[in-house]
Amino acid sequence: MKVLKFGGTTVSTAKNFRTLLDILQEESQLEKPVVVLSALRGVTSGLAGLADIAAAGKEFNGILKEIEEQHVSLAKELLQGETQPPVLGQLNAYFQELESLLQGISTLRELTPKTRDLVLSYGERCATYLCSEAAKARFPEVLYLDATTIVKTDNNFGHARVQSDVTDMLVRSAYEEHRNHLLFVTGYIASDEQGHVTTLGRGGSDYTAALLGAALNCSEIQIWTDVDGMMTADPKMVKKAFPLTELTYTEAMELSYFGAKVIYPPSMIPAFLKKIPIIIRNINNPAFQGTAIRHSSDKNGHKIKGISSISDISILNLQGSGMVGKAGYSGRLFSLLSREQINIILITQASSEHSITFAVHPTDAQKAKQLIEQEFELELLAEKLERPTIEQDLAVLAIVGENMKQKTGVSGTLFHALGRNGVNVRAIAQGSSEYNISVIIFRHDLPKALNSVHDAFFTELKKSLHVFCLGTGNISSTLFRQLQEHHEFLQQHNGIQVKVVGISNSRKMLFNADGLSLTSWQEELDERGEQANLKEFISRMQQMNLPNCVLADNTASPAPIQYYEDVFRSNISIVTCNKIGNSSSYQQYRTFKDTALQHGVDFFYETNVGAGLPIVRTLKDLMMSGDRVLRIEAILSGTISFIFNNFKGDASFHDVVKLAQEKGFTEPDPRDDLSGMDFMRKMLILARDAGYPLEAEDVQIENILPPSCLQADTVPAFYEELKAAEDYFQALKDKAEKEGKVLRYIGSLDQGKASISLQMVDEIHPFYTLSGSDNIISFTTDRYKERPMVVKGPGAGAEVTAAGVFADIVNVGTH
Ligand code: ADP
Ligand code: ASP
Ligand code: MG
Question: Where would I find the ACT domain in this sequence (predicted)?
Answer without folding.
Answer: 399-477
